[in-house]
Structures
1.
Amino acid sequence: MKPVFLESFYPVLLLAHLGVTFFLVGAMVHNFWCVIRYVNGRFDRCDSEKRYAKWLFLAYLAAYGIGALVYPAYKVYIGYPGFRIETPWAKGLFEVKEHWAVIGLLMAGGYYYLRRNFEPEKERAKLALYVPLCFLLNATVWYVVIAGCRLTMLKGSWS
């Protein structure tokens, strides 16, 4: 069989993907708690929340990009031969996870774009869009992370 793109770097890329994902989850959870304060009328952490939104977006881009580099080798060695017979449900979980990852990337971009010039204390009407988007983005990222961890625990290496 011909070598797959970046196949020999798979372990390093997978660890980098995991590390960036931890960073993403940290930025996302910190951002989430600041946004919950907005709902309660507390706007004392706007600067921190804005930084978290920026890091959330950058970490999502990095995690998605590294995941895209891992994808070809994962798909060839694990996605098709491993999941087809042994665990047919896992292939579906992987595909759904990947679709939600793309949706999450679009949401993260929109979330960051909205936050760049948004002053929550002065523009409270925008909170009606910003807060639900924050909750949806968190739910999406947590689903993708949990599904990815489950799939990796099931069969995360071809060595």
2.
Amino acid sequence: MNQKTNFIMLVLIIFLAGISPAQEKSKNFPVLKGPYLGQKPPGMTPEIFAPGIISTGYCEVCAAFSPDGKELFFGLWEESPFIVILFTKEINNQWTPPQVAPFSGQYCDLKFNISPEGDKLLFTSKRPFNASKKPSESWHIWMVEKIKTGWGKPINPGSIINSKWGEMYPSISENGNLYYFSDHGPKEGGCDIYLSRFIKNDYTKPEKLGISINTEYNEGDPFIAPDESYILFCCRDRKDGSGANDLYISFKKKNGIWTKAKNMGKNINSSANDTCPSVSPDGKYLFFTSNRKIHKSYSQTSMKYKRILRNLSDPGNGYCDIYWVDAKIIDELKPKELKYGD
């Protein structure tokens, strides 16, 4: 193993060792059965997802389930920064302990989403475009495809998508259209959300979404509904915001025009960073990442690794957890004219 792989294994060991007091006694991963790791479904108020199991008091980001609900991917962020993608899956009606994804662990791999069909996982990485080169200084989009034995090797979708500016948080619709955010320089006014259409088995030149979604502020982390009926994203510093990054939603009309993005409200957003939205494949739950609350397991973390969680008093820094909430909130935010026809 190289140095970075050793580091990742160390972090993962720490992650698993600190899962909960019960596990510390038994040294075993708990027996988890049923949908969503056997967790009690949330209501209309966001709750930490799988506390002490997935959200542990370190820094967990993103949550992406496979279409059959039997595989979960999530990220673990160390302050270096070094980010690794982990996964757990349901085998013989029991969830396995988290492991490093076979395509991750060597380079910084960050925000990701799974295609609606489950045959592709798109993620952000600083891995080199060529194996003989140094890691990239910018984040770019990569893709792995499902194969019989698991997942294939990461593929770079090419210069049509990946530019010198860097691209992040890819999300793909049922028809293959790719949404992501990028900072194309100061003339573009910061980070904006882009769309690259999938036509004739190839991606087209990216186009920036309109002013209903993009503003002079920084928009990021887009999640597109499989049928492209709505888009979730985060933004900070807007006048209707409640703090750092807030979650927003926009709906597509029958004429293809997006409605003016709406803040998802105080019940969803906090004064901290609320980012990385995604909706479970069955449409039942909204997942997102937030650093709104110091997890109780923080007090159980050894002093050696509490440095990972430094600056907790600053809502823009420090640890984060994965939250989930009933996705009915999306329908509640839908404009009346779209609920009952354009």
3.
Amino acid sequence: MILVTGGCGYIGSHIVKTLSENGEEVVVYDNLTHGNADSLMHKDSLIIGDITNSQSLEHVFSAHEIECVIHCAALVNASESNEKANEYHRVNEVGSTIVYRAAKMAGVKYLLYASSAAVYGTPAGHSPLLERGPTNPINVYGETKLAGEKSLKQACSGDMRFGIFRFFNVAGASPDGHLRQDPASNAILQRLFGVAKGYEREIIISGHDYSTKDGTVVRDFVHVEDITRAFTLALQYFRQGRSSFTLNLGSGIPHTILEVLHTVELVTHKSIPTRYAPRIPGDIEYSLADIRNAKKTLNWQPDHNLIQMIQDGYRVYQ
């Protein structure tokens, strides 16, 4: 059986759906603060609880024979994290440690952690980011995700193996239209969809004087369905007796925010009114994944391009 923390959230629910459709038995642990119980489509078991509650977690492990934990539960708004630093440390850092300890005590074999490219911070140049490169997070969110990685490595010993996935900008939705990203999130595509639908008057782009081809920041977008496939490949990998890993999950393709905006206009056939604002202090100019290790380790590579991410995401948004 597989335990997915945060399995009712955006990425977690897609992972649960894929696992269930692959014949895996899944139990979901979620406090439903940001998740939606209706996202569970295959009668997966749902236990409502918080990852900071060690007694509740210990009960879950005693009641179920868990082979693998997929730890997705977290607070994920990078800009909010600096304002709510204590809460982000409590949930993302302390909560993760509690999950790992409970899993270790229960004899769990494998632990997969949903980390973030935020652990890298601001790259020195415009080169793709390597997993072995420096980690210098510039916000509390990135600090807590990096802390979650470190405590995972400390917790895993003996036969317990771990996989760390550093997500870049996850986008898109399940093609069947049942799952989606929260429209109220601060994700750039959700904001652009809101303008395309007329819910917002304009999109504000912070900073258009960066050293990029059109002056806006560069990001790496990866489809959520490609993310879920990486987790199924990781399970197969571990069941073959392979070793622990840390891997980037991105498309490996750079897109400026202005390019993303124009692609949304192309897909939606809507004009996106734009207003430029000053840079956000500390905003990362260039973020691009080097995904060669994911290809080498798991034989994983993304199948979706930016247009497909926008098509799937906008279809569900509507």
4.
Amino acid sequence: MQERRTESRPRALKGGRIIFNNRFSAMDCTMRNLSAQGAMLLVAGPHGIPDAFKLELDGGASTRECKVIWRQQKKLGVAFV
């Protein structure tokens, strides 16, 4: 796969939470890499996750708006909006 990122993403292992459906739906995730522009998330399964959602970091201390760039079996590549 050709690298298309403009900035490298350092590896990470942080817990997060995908929030969607007007905060009525949530799903836990793990961030495997993280930069100022985006992240790769590990999820139980990418089905049912919308193309845009909020990502809670640090136990809800911060929230980022995300747009899904790619999907694989249990991985999502997201860009921060």
